[in-house]
Amino acid sequence: MNCYTAKTIAYIVVGLISLANTYGANDNKYLSPLKILASKEGKNLYIAEYTANQVAVFDTEKNKVTDTIRIPGPPSGLALSDDRNKLYVTVASPAGKVCIVNIKEKKVTENLPVGHTPTAPVISPDGRFLYVSNRFDNNVSIIDLNTKKELTRIPVKREPIASAITTDGKFLFVANSLPYGSANTNYISAVVSVIDTKAQKVAKNIKLPNGSTELHDICISPDGKYAYVTHILARYQMPTTQLERGWMNTNALSIINVQNKELLNTVLLDDIDLGAANPWGVTCTRDNKYICVAHAGSHEITLIDRQKMHKKLENAANGYEISKSLKDKLYADDVKNDLAFLADLKQRVKLYGKGPRGIAAVGNKIYAAEYFSDSLAVVDIANKNQPKVVSIKLGPEQKLSTIRKGQLAFHDASLCFQQWQSCSSCHPDARSDGLNWDLLNDGLGNPKSSKSLLLSHKTPPVMVTGVRDKAQTAVRSGIKYIQFAQPAPDKANAIDQYLESLKPVPSPYLVNGKLSDDAKKGKILFEKANCASCHPAPLYTDMQKYDVGTGKGLEKNQKFDTPTLVEIWRTAPYLYDGRANTIKQVLKEYNEKDKHGKTNDLNEKQIRQLAEFVLSL
Ligand code: HEC
Ligand code: HEC
Fold first, then answer.
1. Position with higher pLDDT, 222 vs 239
2. Which residues line ligand 2 (CB under 6 A)?
3. Which residue in 121, 394, 435, 511 has a CA-CA distance of 20 to 30 Å to 40?
4. CATH of domain 115-398
């Protein structure tokens, strides 16, 4: 090889490296717009760009980004002070914080420490307090904005993800994204926790209909009367034999009466033959006319005529006449199962971008943050019958890496027959929805707890029964038998790569990233009680099947694939049928005969220490 060629090759290599930097799998090159907040007069939008660690300032008159503000981590939520000088940005990390941004100077001036993966900052109407939902600590921080001190943390149920405050500031409605409790019961749903802001405690937990999971957003109408919550309404009690008419998952909006803090009703956003998958952001137009919902899975927004919807709900409460001649009536209880209820009261508007999540309304315009296409949807509804839709790029066009394509495919309901659901409808963030499902891979009548997909590709076989040889097979079966679609090889491969790229989130049980004293003692017990023989580090599974005495009914004496214990703090309920809500139950209540490790001779304290260790993984 002569010198010249060597040099050329060197140039080519350097060229490839710089190309790789531009187009490589590095997530930071994407913006991933997640949340949008409009300034009071609507001149600016603040857009939290999750993977770019920045907030973009978008001018609604010039229709473009005029500034970006660097944030020291992924921005997960935004709030604006009433004097408009300060923007509060939650940063989603284990040692979470709220950044205070001076808007004029476009920079962070202060950081206030809060809990694990904070989101949903909300300022009280009098401007004195800031509320922040610490998603993985399952609590809400109250911060005094004068002293900048955190006053207290109020425990809520599970993964608080969004909140809204009443117009008088007396109550904060907090949406817990996942159900809490055993999954093998007849009623399981996520709740909305109502915090009495003066008493600083939960006044009430409002149960949503059976099967409500994956709450994403909540807003209170400008007239202060209702709270609207987006979520999935899972029909988990049905075997997953078909998708027609929302047989598996429907997509819903629950309506809460703010005055009496009771669930008014739940309406479905789908149509009879077309799902409106993964409802995410929700807001009302300021004139009180419309409720607007962004659908992250079906890439659209829905506009619901508020007054007409409430009128119809009122009628349903008294028996709504569907057909005079047939004397057919619809009652309030039927609404949540009626795919036609909103038919003439809503309008679905298809967007050009992918994965709309956060939403905001200014005048006649609705804005949605299109997570996967790094764009902002602008829907002009001045002419209601013909909404005008554009999608504005928020940065330079980026070629999607295979991982990013896989992440999109995983969240994309357009791959599903009639777009009823995406993979994320049962595996939010590729984890578990907290429900049991009766999938067909192991026969009928034996529901299994939905599994987290973290480490699936590293721990074959998969499924509770180990019926699939490896995760790749399960991915393709999922597309075929759950989405009722043909698995296109490039999409299935991309999903594999996305799932393989998942990293565990550090446990909230760690103290400064290390095992607590109790967990350290638990680690020793983990060896002593023989746990490590089947759950050895670092994957905490030996990938073998055992009968650990948990099988009941059809599953009596059944061997189950040993699950990984990594990130188990996040994936309750436990055991194949989700019967155990706590690790303690796994170790005591459901291990009478010591077939599942030797736990019977452990005292209360030791069980607590062992659980603490397991929950730290
Ligand atoms: C209707 C709910 C539902 C949907 C939608 C769904 N899954 Fe699942 N998935 C489950 C349940 C429940 C299990 C565990 C069942 C079992 O173990 O028998 C599971 C298990 C898996 C596993 C095995 C995990 C392991 O480590 O054992 C993989 C991989 C998987 N799903 C991938 C997908 C993909 C990819 C999609 C989208 C194409 C998808 N799932 C859609 C409910 C669902
Ligand atoms: C003989 C092998 C074996 C031993 C020993 C063992 N496990 Fe397990 N473990 C399993 C199997 C198999 C399952 C799945 C059981 C089921 O789903 O009903 C499981 C499930 C679990 C779960 C629930 C996981 C989930 O996602 O639902 C936890 C927690 C757990 N084990 C912790 C422990 C601890 C702590 C010990 C020691 C006291 C221990 N295991 C000892 C095999 C074992």
1. 222
2. 464, 529-531, 533-535, 546, 548, 550, 560, 562-563, 565, 568, 571, 574-576, 583, 586-587, 596-597, 599, 610, 614
3. 394
4. 2.130.10.10
